[in-house]
Input
Amino acid sequence: MKKLSLLGIATLALLANAVTSFAQNCAPTAAAWTSPGSAGATIDPIGGALNKYAISPFPLNSCLTFKGTATGTIIARYDVVNTAAPSTPMPPWNTFEMGYTMPAGTTVTATLFRVFPCTGQVEQICQIVGVAGNTCACCFFAAGAFNYRTNLYMVEVKLTRAAGAPAPTLCTLRVYN
Output
């Protein structure tokens, strides 16, 4: 009986290790910037977007989406702050990720920008153009693209919806390595 208990504990430990290893391969390996689609966005008022956007209802209240039958375009911008610790001005991030749903008749696009101080000029670092379905998509860029001593960073998300189409959603954004 004692050997059987030890065998059970050993099996459980191996399974736990396998699950932990899998999780580590799918997640950022260091500090990351993250944002639920429903949090921290500035909604661009152009085109009446302030009257079009909504936060998806429970249980997915973390997603940005359209109200009822609203159509057109919603543009949302997210400030990418430095979350690397301890105070790393050049985080080694190289991956931009977006979690979303994109039914037929809709589009979802996210663009990661470098913003130059004082002028406000922007330069695209990476862009994800959604594909139909419910997915998580990434784009990759060279490590060293971030330098918080010299630049600022933002993500711009565009959701579009045609009349009669189901609503697309933006659920998650992450920048990591």
User: Anything to note?
Assistant: The first helix runs from residue 2 to 26. The chain has one helix and eleven strands.
